[in-house]
Amino acid sequence: MVRTRFAPSPTGYLHIGGARTALYCWLYARKTQGTFILRIEDTDLERSTPESVQAILDGMAWLNLDYDEGPFYQTHRFDRYHEVIQQLLVEDKAYRCYCSKERLEKLREEQMARKEKPRYDGHCRNRTEEAEGSFCVRFKNPLEGVVEFDDLIRGKLVFANTELDDLIIARSDGSPTYNFTVVVDDWDMKITHVIRGDDHINNTPRQINILRALGATLPLYAHVPMILGSDGKRLSKRHGAVSVLQYREEGFLPEALLNYLARLGWSHGDQEIFSIEELIKLFDIKDINRAPAAFNQEKLLWLNQHYIKTSDPAHVAKEFAWHMQKLGIDTSNGPALVDVIRAQCERTKTLREMAERSRYFYEDVLIADDMKTHFPADILPALQTVRDQLSALPEWTKEEIHGVLTRTAEANSLKLGKLAPSVRVAMTGGTVSPPIDTTILLIGRERAIARLDQVL
Ligand code: GLU
């Protein structure tokens, strides 16, 4: 039975690299009808914050990446870590190291001077006399041989044990260290597949050695290559939005971001658009690319627009409502959100843009001074006619409204292309909107007339 976990450290927002890892873990669990676990690696008390935990939970919820177990918090598991540290000490698989900071510093300097990699020299591992004072606990890493594993993405990887020194598993204050807590958790949670960023690849042989010492079954490992910015450097804030929730703010649909992240580093032929169901069916770890992928904002926008246009408007409306609320627009009095979405979806790439351009459906418009040139004296009689005819329409339909505009243009010897822009500015305060008949329809009769009155 497959068991995967997403194990973020809550030291910042949930960034899109993390979200992609979470997605791959989630997809693989869903595909295999396995279990997906969320584990919050919050042992770094100085850098972990409750806000960041919340941002991770909110990001996961927004992306709809639901977990079957957890969230587990490492800070709630200290008793368990201490128990395993004791076990390793008793079994002589770990030892107390009393080396002072000064000694370690000196050792380091000497090694650096000899151009050697700084590493612990095993002083306390070999110590025979009693020692006292403060100590940390180190794992007895095997002294020879290699650690070998078949990475599901990278293939066979081999590390010499002579390259790995005796890792500190408990600090002098007794707190367990990062590589150790991961091991205990992966073991206790019976993780079968560790899918994570390849920045952890050098931790893996250390973790494998500890797992072996504990007699644990080893999980399989898949190290996912990083995401690069457009300049080929590791993706970071410099490149723009990197937090999942910021993508929400910018007006992306979760399915667009998921589709994008799935394809960023994984492929199935040259298919670009995948529903979640398709992803679950088609995803496989072995198809994750070995090379790092470059982030492409244009493609993400393209996908977003695709999903805005093709998704059920009722579904889009839930996210759209969030944006309207963020902008402080009260949508209770005005057209149904689904109708606004249908009218606007062809011309906006993000929901935020759509929300910003939909204010006039719900709120009074102010005609800025520089817009007043759209109302020359010779157009005013036509606007008056439009006003009166809209008021007298027996039925408030798009066709009827269209009829009013064409008849009025004709009667005033105007091209519709001359009349419509003025009407549009009167209705919306601006020069961009859906087709004018649809726009008027959605604004509603009462408001439409009031706006023409305002201009007249
Ligand atoms: N907590 C680690 C991180 O956020 C992930 C560790 C892992 O997946 O093993 O980078």
TrEMBL record:
A motif ('HIGH' region) lies at residues 8-18. It comes from the Bacteria. Keywords: Aminoacyl-tRNA synthetase, ATP-binding, Cytoplasm, Ligase, Nucleotide-binding, Protein biosynthesis. A motif ('KMSKS' region) lies at residues 234-238. It catalyses: tRNA(Glu) + L-glutamate + ATP = L-glutamyl-tRNA(Glu) + AMP + diphosphate. It is an enzyme of class 6 (ligase). One of its GO terms (biological process) is glutamyl-tRNA aminoacylation. ATP binds at residue 237. The keyword Transcription regulation does not apply. InterPro entries: aa-tRNA-synth_I_cd-bd (IPR045462), aa-tRNA-synth_I_codon-bd_sub2 (IPR020751), aa-tRNA-synth_I_CS (IPR001412), aa_tRNA-synth_I_cd-bd_sf (IPR008925), Glu-tRNA-ligase_bac/mito (IPR004527), Glu/Gln-tRNA-synth (IPR000924), Glu/Gln-tRNA-synth_Ib_cat-dom (IPR020058), GluQ/Sye (IPR049940). Catalyzes the attachment of glutamate to tRNA(Glu) in a two-step reaction: glutamate is first activated by ATP to form Glu-AMP and then transferred to the acceptor end of tRNA(Glu). It is found in: Cytoplasm. Monomer. Residues 321-455 form the Aminoacyl-tRNA synthetase class I anticodon-binding domain. Residues 1-302 form the Glutamyl/glutaminyl-tRNA synthetase class Ib catalytic domain. One of its GO terms (molecular function) is glutamate-tRNA ligase activity. This is Glutamate--tRNA ligase. One of its GO terms (cellular component) is cytosol.
